[in-house]
Amino acid sequence: MSIATLTSKGQITIPKEIRDELGLVAGSKVMFVTLLSGEVRMVRRTGSIEDLAGLLHDPNRPAMTIEEINEAIAEGGAASGMRGLR
Predict the structure, then answer these.
(1) 76 φ, ψ to 5°?
(2) For residue 44, is it within any domain?
(3) Cα radius of gyration (the chain)
């Protein structure tokens, strides 16, 4: 188990074994995700949204409305236990 100490400026140093495990290097980005349980997870942020373009495209599937997309996103977030991003 790795432990980090919060400084007076709100900063922490991610322990080396965790940096190595996540493949983090100087300049890497991480996200903090709060789950419904109140647990917070640090997740390595990779790539950009543009990298996902066309990933889910299915030419045989009709286009969804904005309302259907929003509903699917809400259901997916509820199912995963995510409360929001910080």
Answers:
(1) -65, -40
(2) yes
(3) 18
How far is CA 68 from its chain centroid? 22
Q: Is residue 1 part of a domain?
A: no
Residues 51, 31: Cα–Cα separation, whole Å: 18
Note the pTM of the prediction, 2 decimals.
0.49
Closest CA to 45 of 58, 27, 57: 27
> For 15-64, what is each residue's pLDDT tens digit?
999 999 888 999 998 888 888 888 888 888 876 666 556 656 677 878 88
Domain count, the chain: 1
User: Within a domain: residue 25?
Assistant: yes
Please check whether residue 3 lies inside any domain of the structure: no
Q: Count CB neighbours of 44 within 10 A.
A: 13
